[in-house]
Amino acid sequence: MTDASQAVGDVEQSLSAHNDSLHEQEGRIAREIYARMTGVIDPELGRSITDLGMVTGVEVSAHDEDINTFDVHLSIELTVPGCPLSDVIRERIEQAVATYPDATLYLDLHVGSMGEEKLGHLVAELKAARRENPFHKKGVKTRIFAIASGKGGVGKSSVAANLAAAFAVKGYDTAVIDADIYGFSMPKLLGADSQPTNLNGMLMPVETWGIKVMSIGMFAGSDQAILWRGPRLQRSLEQFLSDVWWGDPDVLLIDMAPGTGDMAISVAQALPNAELIVVTTPQPSASDIAVRAGLVALQVPMDVAGVVENMSYFEHNGERLHIFGEGGGQRVAEQLTRQLHDKLGHDIPLLAQLPLETNLRETGENGRPVVLDADGNLAETSLAQQFSDMVDKLMSMREV
Ligand SMILES: Nc1ncnc2c1ncn2[C@@H]1O[C@H](COP(=O)(O)OP(=O)(O)OP(=O)(O)O)[C@@H](O)[C@H]1O
To answer: Which ligand 1 atom sits closest to the C-alpha of 159?
Structure first.
């Protein structure tokens, strides 16, 4: 091969590699834009536009590859032509595209309306869902707290279990959904060892310490587990909400899977009134990711009630030892306030700083939340008092 033909070959190869990577980039942006659309909620129906089948096409092509700009051709179908809230949807889409971090995107939005058949299916599905999920409507009296953490092991489930027990012992009708479907721990922490009763397809939650509890862990090993362990998180959560008879609780706590994305979107879709409680430990590695877990509220319509710092200190001979460092909870609260204040209209408070206590782990492992004494009353400990205060803070928030 001559030098010249070698050079041409090299150029061709590098051009084709370049085209490939450009093509990949376009594909990746298209997928990421679609993922962002899952966070765009139809204001009337309270569900994501992807879930409603409104997004019918996303195509991305390079606008000017040298300056990292792309055209995004997005097609959506509204339920009703010229629907009065279409401007809101349009704005939400524009916002989701405009805040894309890795490139400048020019949006070309095509707005159409659904054909009769598709609309018919959607309406039938919505009617069924509305009948079944009692928490979906705006204005339901139940306060819904979704307990989140960026990473595992920070004590999210322990906080959820003790908070639930504190609510219940203070007289609130309390329900808990263990939505951490792959790492369920609520049945153990709350000592809920029986199986839910099945009444003609409607499941009755297990009651323990005055709390109604439902967890995939209650089905482990049974045939139902396979049914419930559906491939999609969203579907599992919907089942917890719609196939279980919850009555009309004052408070519903959701122990979410650790992480920063999908779970919160599913919760926001299924429970538009949910408020996030972010659990962190004091060290930066946990608090940084906890901030990200809280910032999901920028993407989905979800309030953030506050931050709980767990494992803040260990009390030894009257002295507080900061084993995992200091300041993580405060940092998360401040950063979330900075970024969410305008959207949510309030500061994000640090709700509590909870100590490391061997007791918390030990009683938890034996199925009793540590805030309760053996008779099921509020324990006379400062930790129980902290949870009780947290309940008061949370319940006073909506009155303001
Ligand atoms: N304040 C605390 N003092 C002592 N032990 C604690 C405390 N908080 C949690 N633990 C213990 O730490 C371990 C992890 O807690 P937990 O399961 O509640 O965390 P998690 O964030 O829900 O984890 P995952 O998401 O992985 O389920 C448990 O053994 C629990 O008993």
So the answer is: 18
